Amino acid sequence: MTVSLVEEARGGPFVYWDGLENACQEASRLGFHGIEIFAPGPEAVDQVMLKDLLRTHSLQLAAVGTGAGMVKHGLSLTDRDSDRRTAALAFIERMIDFGAQFSAPAIIGSMQGKWTAEVPRPQALSFLQSALNRLGAYAAARGVRLLYEPLNRYETNLIKTLADGAALLSQLETNNVQLLADLFHMNIEETNIEGAIRSHCSVIGHVHFVDSNREAAGRGHLDLAEIALALRESGYKGFVSAEALAIPDSHSAAATTIATYRTCFGP
Ligand code: LER
Ligand code: MN
Fold first, then answer.
1. Considering every ligand atom, which ligand is closest to the CA of 9?
2. What 3-state class would DSSP assign to 162?
3. Any alpha helices (H) in the chain, and if so which ranges?
4. I want to staple 16 with a disulfide (CB 3.0 to 4.6 A). Which of 3, 40, 81, 115 is the partner?
């Protein structure tokens, strides 16, 4: 279950918005196994309180998003300015440190940025590759993986499919980076969602379990039973995380997600 602590992102694809305590109570009551936090930065989370909430509610921290580096601070790993790229790396390293306290991986999604006239595609990909090498090794030294998320064409022009993501990972010096398969982005970019999952499952480390319209799983037109079958038959053992819009409201989105999850993956 996702929870956003980033006011600037309100209206974005996160289920809970009213603090960690509320999110943990609801997630636990509905039967989720973990929460994924989208935070403005590590200092925005009281880590002692988070540890306590996770223990009280028998939840794991599934992952931490780093997108606030872009949303709040305008940072990107492929910025033309080297000081800005360094600041983006530093922000993500601090998020990795935070997640590692809870054995949770950090996610690089929107922080990958875009190629532009000033930073042409080969240059941007080279910046991205060296950032993933450095951050992958940084995460490995702290005992956690790093997640890299292909996005749809309206959010990036770098890597949009699992196949291109897997090819990028295969060129890295580190093997500590895995793909995040977000079903919303995949619905826009993949030729065949189940086929992409089956082909690249060995490098999928996390799934954003959401429907075609970015509403809760079950409120759109994805064939989630077939997608879940592809994940199960490929031996996927990671989290499927509800990164969905709070439509019609947080509680309904969460309840619909867990009902769909149980239909697709079993009780
Ligand atoms: C952004 O669209 C997204 O899917 C997030 O998980 C990445 O920041
Ligand atoms: Mn996502």
1. 1
2. helix
3. 20-30, 47-56, 68-71, 82-100, 121-141, 162-170, 183-189, 193-200, 224-233, 250-265
4. 3
Nearest protein CA to atom 8 of ligand 1, as residue: 109
Of the candidates 11, 18, 62, the one whose C-alpha atom is nearest the C-alpha of residue 251 is 18
For 178, the 3-state DSSP assignment is: strand
The answer to whether 184 and 214 are in contact (CB under 8 A) is yes
Looking at 26, 36, 93, 149, which residue is catalytic?
A: 149
158 Cα to the center of ligand 1, angstroms: 14
What's the rounded Cα separation, in Å, for the pair 134 and 138?
6
Model pLDDT for residues 2-20, shown as the tens digit of each residue: 999 999 999 999 999 999 9
- Mark whether 149 is an active-site residue: yes
DSSP per residue over 230-248, as a string? HHHHTT--S-EE------S
- Residues within a 6 A CB radius of ligand 1: 65, 67, 109-110, 149, 151, 155, 182, 208, 243
| Cis before 248? omega within 30 | yes
Instruction: Report the nearest-CA residue for atom 5 of ligand 1.
Output: 109
Band (267; pLDDT cuts 50, 70, 90): confident
Q: Which atom of ligand 1 is nearest to the CA of 243?
A: 6
CATH class of 2-265: alpha beta
Strand partners, 107: 65, 147
Q: Where are the domains of the chain?
A: 2-265
Cα→Cα distances 162→109, 150, 189, 199, Å: 13, 7, 9, 9
Task: Considering the candidates 26, 93, 215, 243, report the single residue annotated as catalytic.
Answer: 243
Residue 7 CB partners (closer than 8 Å, separation 6+): none
How far is Cα 112 from Cα 91, in angstroms, rounded to an integer? 13
Catalytic-residue membership of 36: no
